[in-house]
UniProtKB/TrEMBL annotation:
Biological source species: Alexandrium monilatum
The protein, known as: Protein kinase domain-containing protein
Annotated stretches, region: Disordered: 243-282, 600-653
Lineage: Eukaryota, Sar, Alveolata, Dinophyceae, Gonyaulacales
Entry-linked InterPro entries: Kinase-like_dom_sf, Prot_kinase_dom, Protein_kinase_ATP_BS, Ser/Thr_kinase_AS, Ser/Thr_Kinases-Pseudokinases
Annotated Protein kinase domain residues: 309-588
Residues that coordinate or bind ATP: 336
Stored PROSITE patterns: PROTEIN_KINASE_ATP, PROTEIN_KINASE_DOM, PROTEIN_KINASE_ST
């Protein structure tokens, strides 16, 4: 932690200084309210006494003096009322930042200093050029005692009662000294030559108050700095311990238990590479200059003048980012960027969004597949801290919308469309999982798959997988996983650091169920807490299959059940699923126009036979899914789209 400024005592770190000021904010407001209430009470009492006793003579000079005193007292009373109202009115109080509050409190105390002289019986007529002895009916004993004591009260109150930084009180101290000197020496003090002695003593009192306030503030700042150092040291120690534990868990030389899943995958673990320095830079997100250098070296940096965006054409948006249309090299593209209307309060979330964008770059720059959205490059603004992804513009509805609406604008949904969506998604996952190191998508769901018209098969759809913000590479020390609660695997909720391909297997099984039936895996009315509890406790309900046993559902249901199993070892990998899909295509090709190109050889009958799972429903299953009508699940799913969004949130752990 950087040392404080020797003169002002300010922390060199702006955030630490803001925290110090904010820590005293409530006390400043409360004590200022008390001071304003006391001043207002004293002024009301003094005003009442003057009205009752009326010590002024019935002369023009006396009336003007009384008017001055009453006007100043009314102004002070009004100012105290404004201070009290501003402090007690919470909306206005929230609109004022802590530094502005500190300045306004100092201004309030500054106004009090000359007001004490203008309300004094001696200095009020002297300010107007009158003789004080000719103003009042009774003889008065004139002295500076009252005004000097009032100035001392102002100084002591601001330095001991109000926890304001000493550097902010300098204007008040100067005003108090100059005010006393001006009225006492220029207007004329009743004490005569002894005014110099009183002024010197008052200056000494102010200097002692300054020293005391500064000493108190030094101790306060040292205590805060010590607290920050202790918490920083504790956090660093916990971070080192967590890294050491993660390294121990992922150490390929560790001796796994014989027969365990770790033992079976020991060879794979030993072959997993470490995260490269390039990937570290992309995962960090704080060094955009280094990322720009990497982009130039790998030739995916797009200069700003090469990209033309159309902000009015929004293709999609989320909490802190959006996707808009644009042109790159006279080609229509999709530009993924952060929202420009975010406030300072959203700065942390905006940076998290940029980290997600950089993670997409980290994955997509090495990915090339017909069923994965193509990555053209990115623009990077180092000064603004902004990153924009330039992606292939995929025209078509998302898979979830296509299923819920029962087709596109030109024709109804067909069984071949459902089968094509499943096979294309499986192809994309087979490709990602076969990379070295393997890539886990981590957020597989219907809204992250776009169904465009297949250029090779007129009238057919082709699925494109996108949104790799939560994707992970299976290196030795992978980043924690996340996902969307409706589709995420149970082990990700229990231990997000246990990254594996099986998480995609599970999400793919749930997604295939939705594509086949139009029913969400969880009942749309289920609360988030109930779903999280079911995932953590491995208490998932059976999938709510409809009673109508269509041919495609009957073919796919066995492997969908296995992929959706809560037991990791029971799930099928994507190449195995592709072989079952090949078998399904061979069986249904006579009844449906199914594209079987690119599918592997079908499984043999002995290898492909699987036991038919039993029908059941659980606490989280949709009870309406047991309807005997084939259209019921589809209509129920359409009405569930908005309510099911309660479970469609990104899970970042």
């Amino acid at each position: 932690m950087e040392p404080n400024d020797k003169v002002s005592l300010r922390f060199r770190d702006v955030r630490t200084e803001d925290f110090f000021v904010k820590s005293n904010h409530n006390q400043v407001v409360t004590n200022t309210c008390v001071v304003a209430a006391v001043v207002a009470t004293v002024n009301v009492g003094r005003w009442a006494l003057l009205l009752i006793n009326n010590p002024f003579r019935d002369t023009h000079e006396a009336r003007r003096t009384r008017l001055l005193i009453f006007t100043v007292e009314a102004g002070v009373l009004t100012l105290c009322s404004i201070v009290l109202a501003a402090a007690l009115f919470k909306p206005l109080r929230r609109r004022l930042c802590v530094r502005a509050t500190e300045v306004l409190v100092v201004l309030f105390m500054v106004v009090m200093s000359p007001s004490m002289f203008l309300m004094d019986k001696y200095y009020a007529p002297k300010t107007l050029g009158y003789d004080p002895d000719g103003i009042f009916t009774e003889a008065q004993h004139w002295s500076d005692t009252r005004v000097v004591l009032s100035q001392c009260v102002i100084i002591l109150t601001s330095h001991l009662v109000l926890p304001i930084r000493w550097i902010m009180l300098i204007p008040l101290e100067v005003v108090c000294v100059v005010t006393y000197a001006g009225f006492g020496l220029m207007v004329g003090s009743p004490d005569g030559v002894s005014t110099w002695n009183a002024l010197l003593i008052f200056v000494i009192l102010v200097g002692i108050s300054v020293l005391g306030r500064r000493t108190i503030e030094i101790h306060q700042r040292e205590s805060l700095a010590q607290l920050i150092r202790e918490r920083t040291a504790r956090a660093e120690t916990e971070f080192k311990l967590s890294r050491a534990e993660a390294k121990a868990r992922s150490d390929p030389l560790a001796d796994p238990i014989r027969g365990s899943p770790d033992a079976r995958s020991e060879g794979d673990r030993c072959s997993r590479p470490d995260t490269t320095a390039t990937s570290h830079a992309l995962m960090d997100g704080n060094d955009l200059a280094r990322i720009t250098q990497i982009a130039r070296e790998e030739r995916w940096l797009i200069e700003h003048e090469e990209l033309h965006t159309k902000p009015q054409e929004v293709l999609g948006s989320g909490g802190y980012g959006k996707v808009i249309s644009g042109y790159f090299s006279y080609t229509s593209v999709a530009v993924k960027m952060t929202r420009m209307d975010l406030t300072e309060a959203d700065e942390g979330d905006r940076k998290a969004w940029i980290v997600d964008l950089l993670n997409e770059i980290r994955i997509l720059r090495h990915v090339r597949h017909p069923n994965v959205v193509q990555f053209y490059g990115a623009t990077i603004d180092e000064q603004a801290g902004d990153v924009r992804l330039v992606l292939e513009l995929v025209k078509g509805p998302c898979l979830e919308s296509l299923i819920l609406k029962g087709g596109g604008p030109t024709r109804a949904l067909q069984a071949s469309d459902q089968f094509k969506a499943i096979t294309d998604t499986c192809r994309a996952l087979c490709y990602l999982h076969s990379r070295k190191p393997p890539v886990v998508h981590g957020d597989l769901k219907g809204t992250n798959i776009i169904m465009e018209l297949d250029p090779c098969l007129p009238g057919r759809f082709r699925a494109k997988l996108l949104d790799f913000g939560l994707a992970r590479k299976l290196t030795r020390n992978p980043e924690p996983m996340g996902g969307t609660l409706m589709w995420v695997a149970p082990e990700v909720v229990r231990n997000p650091r246990k990254v594996g391909l099986s998480a995609d297997f599970f999400s793919f099984g749930r997604l295939a169920f939705f594509v086949l039936t139009g029913i969400f895996p969880f009942f749309r009315g289920a609360a988030r807490e109930v779903v999280i509890s079911a995932l953590r406790d491995n208490a998932l309900p059976p999938l709510p299959w409809p009673r109508v046993n269509l041919a495609l559902i009957a073919e796919c249901r066995p492997w969908v059940e296995l992929c959706s199993s809560a037991t990791v070892e029971d799930r099928l990998d994507m190449p195995t699923v592709m072989r079952y899909l090949s078998q399904t295509a061979a069986r249904l090709s006579a009844d449906f126009d199914v594209d079987i190109g690119g599918l592997p050889e079908p499984l043999s009958t002995q290898e492909g036979e699987m036991e038919e799972p039993s029908l059941a429903t659980g606490a989280l299953a949709d009870p309406s899914s047991s309807s005997g009508e084939s259209t019921a699940p589809r209509s129920e799913a359409r009405s569930a789209a908005s309510e099911a969004s309660n479970l469609n949130f990104k899970l970042r752990i």
